[in-house]
Design brief:
With about 230 residues, this protein is α/β, with parallel strands linked by helices. It has eight helices and eight strands; from the N terminus they run H-E-H-E-H-H-H-E-E-H-E-H-E-E-E-H.
Length: about 230
Amino acid sequence: MAEPPIQQKPFEEGIEKLISRLRRAELPEHVFNLYRHDDPALDTRGGAAKRRENLRRYLKALPAPKYAFIGIAPGYRGARFTGVPFSDESRICFPGSCYDRTSTRETAYREATAGIVLDLLGSRTDVVCWNIVPWHPHKPGEALSNADPDAETIGYGLEVLEYFFQRLYPNVKVVAVGRTPATALTGFKVQGREIEVVASVRHPARGGANDFREQAAALLGIELSAEDE
């Protein structure tokens, strides 16, 4: 007699449903669904499946964070090929890690923003990272480029973010990383309750690295060294 299937815990079940939502999303042509599609010229075989597994492992390791850092969207040198917000292949997909590379590039991608965030957070488990748009907006016809998400795409992302807060992290304190997330999260509600943004910090890109480090470090109680400043 076959054994009954093992029941998933509510948190893990929530992760699976979140990933399913990401995968099923129908998006404009200029927004790449990295959890559903593979670009034969850029992705290894099964790249989307690997990115889903990377995200699954990332979220499972953070069952009870205090803060959620909400950025803009994956960049082509970063989360586009890892599936994990504010990360890049070079820093989390190294040999022996639990994360897989998905780009066909000979050397792993490195992203400045990912490096700044990961260097600050280290192995902390009290911060979970996400984006208002969890897919990759790019310039039309230029897969290896980044573009600011339009209002329609942000709307799709906020639908996923609502589930993210409601099902996975209902008690987390929200930190907007950059002006776009700060604007998108103004008045944002989950089940009729307005999400409180406890802080808004500068995005590390476009000259904001030092401000981000100082603001995020102050929030998290991290003492920066002279090398960090």
